[in-house]
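[INFO] parsing input record for Small-conductance mechanosensitive channel
[DEBUG] input buffer:
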Amino acid sequence: MSLLSELILATVLAAVIILNWRIGWQPAWLRIGVAAGLFCLFTLLILRVGGMPAAPVLDADTRIATWQRGLIALWWLLGARLTVGILPLILWQKRESSQPKIASDLLAGLTYVAAVLATVNFVFDLPVRALLATSGIIAVVLALALQNTLADVFAGIAVGIEHPYVVGDRITIDGSFEGVIVQINWRSIHVRTDGNDIVTIPNSLISKSRVINRSRPSTRRDDSIQVACDSTARPDLVLEYLRHAALLTAQVLASPAPGTSLARIGARTNSYDISFSVAHTDHLGKVKSALLGQVLRQFHYHGIRLVNPGAMSTPIGPVQVNLGPLETLPPEQLLGDIPLFRELSPKQRTDLSTKMIKRNLEAMATLASQGGSLSSLIVVASGVLEASRTIRDHSHVVGRLGPGDHFGELGVITGAPNPGTILALTRCIVFELRKEDLDPVLAAEPGLAEAFEAAVRRGQAFLARDEAAALYAQPGPPAQFLAQIRAFFKT
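[DEBUG] output buffer:
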């Protein structure tokens, strides 16, 4: 094969290698494997047409020599490209990785610089030392002109080595700015705020700031709220009611358990702290709102005045002094707060409240068992109860009940057994309305009967959904579905 033919073949092969990189086949190992194989063939051709790339032997013809120089220079650059392509696999950094690729980018830059210097020295036979000296002077000038940019770059290198945060982490900067990292590069990080804005923060500024990573060691977030009430309310009871509020708030983690404490005392008001944990920062706003709602609920049903600790304005709510243990609203007021009984007149509610039986429950006492008989309406006046169900030997919690909640209408209307177990998580006070006391009122008031019927329908629909979800969540034996498929095709 003539030299000209080999040069043409080498040129075509170089074009194929470049095209292979441009296509970007997936997976990465296949693309790099093909590139490595083609580069080996290209190396063999380079050895034939120009000798060793570090000591090329050029043809006497100037045009052929220029062609040879171009192919050998291309060999150095393609070799650098192959090395850069292998680096991410060595460093275990995929393209979609959440880790910043600053380390691999730095090595890639050094590789390309080395390839260019080798090309200048070996292929074009230019003095590298003079070039480096000139480059050094230029580098000093550029460094002085780009101090801030270089500070960002070196801070980015430190971030790439240390990994204090990665893409997807939620961070707080200097205690005032918070968001989720969406991109990390040489110069800056991009943070998406809770308002869905993208903020670009230079790495040099980040390196000087106090950064709190909310996603490590876990995404759990601890927080607290403070409430104030009238100082005449006994602190031990207020702390108990605040704990009940935390227990009734969905998405508050049971471990670590929520805590309550007396934060400040005063002549008119006392302030209390409620500390709690949520699984993720995204839940924090909703949980705070729900927790404050539960605090209002507890204070309402126990007659505690909610006040503004920083003002001397008139407090909200009824006045009660020196509340006794687990005091509650009067029975007629409890009935007035329940939507079921809003159709009744005040006199009817008062008459019905006289038939309510007060029951005190200690913590962990069982009020109703699944499958048992309960033909009474139970109204919760104080405390926290937990409803659970057992389906196919699998027990799960359905929900929790607090002051103002009620249950038992299913048994009153249909006589069906209890669909679940009701357990007192704390000391509780409940009021019981028996079926024989409710029947005359239901018969005399069609609106009340319709309200009970609607409540029963909602309860039955909820139980059906809960049962379906519980059955779906329980996996069958490993070979269950395979056996069903085989049986289907045999029929």
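[INFO] Residues 225 and 451 are 37 Å apart (CA to CA).
[INFO] shutting down worker
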